[in-house]
């Protein structure tokens, strides 16, 4: 049974990770970051979603390390605008930080253009990267990205792809990158949550769904969904039989991933940024965090301020090109 | 199956489970009663406290909180006309008039018992039908959701007191408000005035607080301190509410079934369940004219439906890993933290989770009902606070509740604007119910209408390809046509009168 191996490899991975990182956790108090007061993480989502769970789990191991309470401040609204305004206005003392996803970058290029720009912030640390995958119902005729592209070519784009967010969202841009690569078109159907997408695929209301691994994993294990391809450099450890897009001949930029990172107001002392990044990456090694991260199928990243800022520049350029190509940028 | 249910009950040998259940029920009761909070926020707030606990203990506490908060929303709706949740709006329609007539303890008694019966019975449905009904609910696609929303909206017809025309106008206001925000398909801002704060649409909690509670405060101020009916406690002690509920058993049973079924459908939920069963109860009532003016039947149907929708929403979560409501979506996050990924295999891999939830829903009912009945004496006193003082308190709750819903000033402004709008509408004798109904359903209707047309590449016949959709559309058409004819008839009568 392949899914038994799959589960075993998750467990083995988690156990290994826990084993490898016992040492750093034991010396946790040696972090260089010593905030003068409680640290607030501003979030752009309501409590309970994926990003909220990430921060709350991280906070749990971060608190004892920095010797200060960590406060989660949920500031939904305005497609991230409320949270970004809060972070931008804060003093760059490291006591007010924000958590971002790719939505922040696509937002700064579209709806929030002129309101916020990447230079308004310090991009401190990248914590998680999460490749996206395309999937179909288990009895679907589609078995691979190639099938999907061929179906679209044969039916003049009459293939419905359900994904998260409107045209111009992270997942929609991935679909458009595939369109650009293959010359075919697909029909984008926007949904507002991943479970809705999975339900629509299971019910046969759309042909193909888009998601990150975590929320879809149990449906793969139950044999209700099958993967068509993952947009990443390598296959996923947990679904080793699903090929990458590149393996199937579709050369799409694999740095287009969902991310979760930490940012702060601009003009933050680079040394402080480095300390914060180190503390966050160290907290991510705690057993509870590792257990959560492996169960949700995300990959850890250790990008500090310098790498993350470069990464953000790259993402912005890529997003801008794609949005431009899709005619979503005003000029 | 029986052995699994026993497994669920056996978990209650652990005193920690009892502690979690009682604590969750108490917290939920209070969180639900505070306007601006509500079940999904309550569950999210409690999650961090469950980190160190056993997963089964945590989930029992969180589910108890969810169920009790769904009931708690009724308390503030009945007492001060500011429903704590959208699902308690229909409870306030009759609950608050009852309070004004001095019958607050009656309304509260009926609401807690109807809630208890709703959960108890629907849990039995849940155990029997979670898997098959959730699989059936997957058949709900864009066209079915559109048709279901249309059925919900057609109920406006039955809920507009007096003039169907004014009901239609109020519905139009609600639908117009629902269009504010980023377009879900294209991401284009609509009616936002370029302000990012409007991107995600008007938030429902401050709209509810403004339309109902703040407008009530303005009316209280206008009425001045005089002529308040003193609320009396029910005579006959604890048994009195039971006798009342005995007379309502048909209403409660029917509403429980409706609430459960609507709850199972992932895109619907407790508020739509309570609206629909309220409207159905009114249609079948021998005294429909009392609805909206203080009918205990109205309170009973709304409360039994919104609580049985809790069990309903748990069905697709436990059977498939697909949340049936905003609160169950948060529960997924809670389970994730404990390393449990709800999905189609939950019953085989972690049977202790669903079966302990079933057991805890049953065991939780007497706990919740006891807390509720004991609380009535306390709450009924709230109804007797002098009017100037209660107006000040409610106004304070409006501001704090609106601020707390998003931790910012924006919802406070929304609440103020809606308060003034609600006051003006009430003064002009427009009903408020259609405004809220249309706001809740408008987005669901539009999103799914467009989703259906996009998947069909603009082919309108898509709405007639599914039998389920066709049936729902026919029901909606009939419900709309009846008052439509009434409008036409009154118009032609007016024209004729003008001619003579």
TrEMBL record, chain A:
The UniProt keyword set, sorted, is:
Signal
Answer yes or no on keyword Signal: yes
* Pfam assignment, any one: TctC
Which family does the UniProt entry place this protein in? Belongs to the UPF0065 (bug) family.
Q: What is the lineage of its organism?
A: Bacteria, Pseudomonadati, Pseudomonadota, Alphaproteobacteria, Rhodobacterales
SUPFAM superfamilies assigned to the protein according to its UniProt record, in alphabetical order: Periplasmic binding protein-like II
Highest taxon above the source species: Bacteria
- Name of this chain's protein: Tripartite tricarboxylate transporter substrate binding protein
Signal peptide boundaries: 1-28
Q: List where this protein forms a coiled coil.
A: none
Automatic annotation (TrEMBL), chain B:
Q: Where is the DUF112 domain?
A: 20-437
Question: What is the residue range of the signal peptide feature?
Answer: none
> Which InterPro entries does its entry note?
DUF112_TM
Q: Is Flavoprotein given among the entry's keywords? A: no
Alphabetic keyword roster: Membrane, Transmembrane, Transmembrane helix
Question: Which parts of the chain span the membrane according to its record?
Answer: 16-34, 41-68, 74-96, 108-131, 143-160, 167-184, 204-221, 258-280, 355-376, 388-404, 410-425, 432-449, 469-488
Q: Name one Pfam family in it.
A: TctA
* PANTHER family listed in its UniProt record: TRICARBOXYLIC TRANSPORT PROTEIN
**UniProt-recorded name of the protein:** DUF112 domain-containing protein
Supply the source organism for this entry: Pararhodobacter marinus
């Amino acid at each position: 049974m392949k899914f038994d191996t799959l589960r075993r490899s998750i467990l083995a991975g988690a156990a290994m990770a826990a084993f490898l990182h016992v040492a750093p956790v034991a010396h946790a108090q040696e972090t260089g970051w010593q905030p003068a007061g409680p640290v607030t993480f501003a979030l752009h989502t309501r409590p309970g979603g994926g990003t909220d769970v990430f921060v709350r789990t991280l906070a749990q191991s971060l608190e004892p390390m920095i010797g200060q309470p960590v406060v989660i401040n949920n500031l939904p609204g305005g497609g991230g605008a409320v949270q970004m305004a809060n972070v931008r206005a804060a003093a760059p003392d490291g006591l007010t930080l924000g958590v971002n996803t790719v939505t922040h970058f696509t937002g700064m290029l579209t709806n929030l253009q002129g309101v916020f720009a990447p230079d308004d912030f310090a991009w401190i640390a990248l914590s998680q990267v999460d490749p996206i995958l395309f999937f179909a119902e288990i009895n679907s005729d589609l078995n691979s990205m190639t099938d999907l592209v061929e179906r679209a070519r044969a039916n003049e784009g009459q293939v419905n792809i359900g994904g998260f967010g409107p045209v111009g969202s992270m997942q929609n841009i991935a679909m458009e990158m595939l369109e650009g690569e293959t010359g075919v078109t697909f029909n984008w159907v926007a949904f507002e949550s991943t479970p809705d997408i999975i339900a629509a695929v299971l019910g046969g209301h759309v042909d193909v769904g888009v998601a990150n691994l975590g929320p879809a994993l149990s449906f793969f294990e139950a044999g209700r969904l099958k993967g068509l391809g993952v947009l990443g450099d390598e296959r996923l450890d947990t679904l080793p039989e699903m090929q990458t897009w590149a393996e199937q001949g579709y050369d799409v930029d694999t740095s287009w991933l969902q991310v979760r990172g930490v940012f702060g107001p601009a003009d933050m002392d680079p040394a402080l940024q480095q300390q914060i990044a180190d503390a966050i990456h160290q907290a991510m090694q705690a057993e509870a965090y590792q257990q959560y991260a492996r169960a949700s199928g995300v990959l850890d990243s250790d990008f500090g301020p310098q790498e993350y800022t470069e990464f953000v520049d790259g993402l912005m350029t890529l997003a801008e090109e794609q949005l431009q190509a899709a005619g979503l940028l005003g000029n | 199956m029986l052995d699994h249910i026993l497994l669920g009950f056996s978990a209650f040998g652990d005193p920690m489970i009892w502690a979690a259940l009682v604590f969750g029920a108490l917290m939920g009761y209070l969180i639900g009663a505070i306007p601006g909070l509500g079940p999904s926020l309550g569950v999210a707030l409690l999650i961090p406290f469950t980190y160190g606990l056993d997963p089964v203990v945590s989930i029992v506490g969180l589910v108890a909180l969810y169920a009790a908060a769904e009931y708690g929303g009724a308390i503030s709706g009945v007492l001060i006309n500011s429903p704590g949740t959208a699902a308690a709006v229909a409870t306030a329609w009759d609950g608050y008039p009852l309070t004004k007539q001095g019958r607050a303890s009656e309304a509260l008694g009926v609401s807690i018992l109807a809630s208890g019966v709703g959960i108890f019975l629907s849990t039995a449905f849940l155990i029997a039908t979670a898997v098959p009904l959730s699989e059936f609910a997957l058949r709900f696609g864009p066209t079915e959701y559109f048709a279901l929303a249309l059925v919900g909206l057609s109920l406006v017809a039955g809920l507009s007191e007096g003039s169907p025309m004014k009901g239609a106008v109020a519905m139009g206001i609600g639908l117009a408000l629902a269009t504010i925000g980023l377009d879900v398909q294209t991401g284009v801002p609509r009616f936002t005035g370029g302000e990012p704060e409007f991107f995600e649409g008007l938030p429902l909690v401050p709209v509810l607080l403004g339309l109902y509670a703040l407008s009530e405060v303005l009316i209280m101020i206008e009425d001045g301190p005089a002529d308040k009916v003193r609320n009396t406690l029910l005579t006959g002690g604890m048994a009195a509410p039971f006798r009342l509920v005995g007379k309502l058993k048909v209403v409660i049973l029917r509403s429980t079934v409706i609430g459960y079924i609507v709850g199972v459908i992932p895109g619907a939920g407790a508020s739509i369940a309570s609206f629909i069963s309220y409207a159905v109860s009114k249609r079948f009532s021998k005294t429909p004219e009392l609805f909206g003016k203080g009918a205990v039947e109205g309170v009973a149907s709304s409360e039994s439906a919104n609580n049985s929708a809790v069990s309903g929403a748990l069905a697709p979560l436990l059977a498939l890993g697909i949340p049936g409501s905003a609160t169950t979506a948060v529960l997924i996050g809670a389970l994730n933290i404990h390393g449990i990924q709800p999905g189609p295999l939950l019953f085989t891999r972690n049977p202790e989770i669903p079966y302990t939830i079933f057991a805890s829903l049953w065991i939780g009912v007497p706990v919740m009902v006891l807390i509720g009945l004991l609380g009535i004496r306390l709450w009924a006193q709230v109804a007797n606070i002098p009017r100037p003082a209660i107006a000040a308190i409610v106004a304070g709750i409006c501001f704090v509740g609106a601020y707390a819903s998003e931790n910012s000033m924006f919802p406070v402004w929304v609440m103020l604007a809606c308060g003034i709008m609600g006051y003006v509408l009430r003064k002009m004798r427009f009903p408020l119910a259609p405004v809220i109904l249309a706001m809740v359903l408008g987005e669901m209707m539009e999103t799914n209408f467009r989703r259906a047309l996009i998947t069909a590449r603009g082919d309108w016949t898509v709405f007639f390809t599914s039998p389920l959709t066709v049936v729902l559309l026919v029901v909606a058409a009939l419900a709309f046509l009846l008052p439509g004819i009434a409008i036409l008839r009154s118009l032609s009568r007016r024209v004729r009168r003008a001619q003579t």
